[in-house]
């Protein structure tokens, strides 16, 4: 397992060794000791599973304090472009975003710290994404930034969004409760 920094303070790409043979692929998707050695303490509280068809945009999601969440994101099937937006007011990367492609074949897991909004667009006919979070879901604490309001080019025509995701606040009107 090799861990790299990803451009937003505290966000990581975890590159796993994928073993492949005639049966398929095998890899370890989570190792708390290895994350801890890299300064990240992550205790899984809940795991979510989402399926999305091509051009579905999900995001940009977060939970506000005191129920904010860090996430581990894996693509189980298909491929996505994952997007992170730093909302932490005292972070060097506040207001900045990064994106990366993740697929079922690349052996990558994305670690997203608390205070970073998360979203993705499905690039394949079907994408299955698995999220592990370190704090339970709280409907009263969920929030979001409108996907097209912070300068990222999603490179998707006719995106498919939920009504909830379309209704999120514009980034320039968001008063962040997050600190590093």
UniProtKB/TrEMBL annotation:
Transmembrane segments: none annotated. The keyword Phosphoprotein does not apply. Its EC number is 5.1.3.13. It is an enzyme of class 5 (isomerase). GO terms for biological process: polysaccharide biosynthetic process. One of its GO terms (molecular function) is dTDP-4-dehydrorhamnose 3,5-epimerase activity. SUPFAM superfamilies: RmlC-like cupins. GO terms for cellular component: cytosol. Keywords: Isomerase. InterPro entries: RmlC-like, RmlC-like_jellyroll, RmlC_Cupin_sf. The keyword Transferase does not apply. CDD domains: cupin_RmlC (cd00438). This is dTDP-4-dehydrorhamnose 3,5-epimerase. It comes from mine drainage metagenome.
């Amino acid at each position: 397992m090799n861990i790299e920094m990803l451009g937003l303070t505290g966000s990581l790409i975890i590159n796993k060794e994928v073993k492949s043979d005639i049966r398929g692929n095998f890899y370890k998707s989570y190792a708390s000791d290895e994350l801890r050695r890299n300064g990240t303490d992550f205790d899984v509280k809940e795991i979510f599973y989402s399926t999305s068809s091509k051009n579905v945009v999900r995001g940009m999601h977060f939970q506000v304090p005191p129920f904010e969440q860090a996430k581990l994101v894996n693509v189980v099937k298909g491929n996505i472009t994952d997007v992170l937006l730093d909302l932490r007011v005292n972070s060097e990367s506040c207001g900045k975003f990064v994106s990366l492609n993740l697929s079922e074949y690349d052996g990558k897991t994305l670690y997203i710290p608390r205070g970073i909004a998360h979203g993705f667009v499905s690039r394949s006919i079907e994408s299955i994404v698995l999220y592990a979070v370190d704090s339970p879901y709280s409907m009263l604490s969920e929030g979001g930034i409108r996907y097209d309001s912070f300068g990222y080019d999603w490179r998707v025509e006719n995106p498919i969004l939920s009504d909830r995701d379309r209704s999120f606040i514009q980034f320039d009107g968001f008063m962040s409760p997050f600190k590093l």
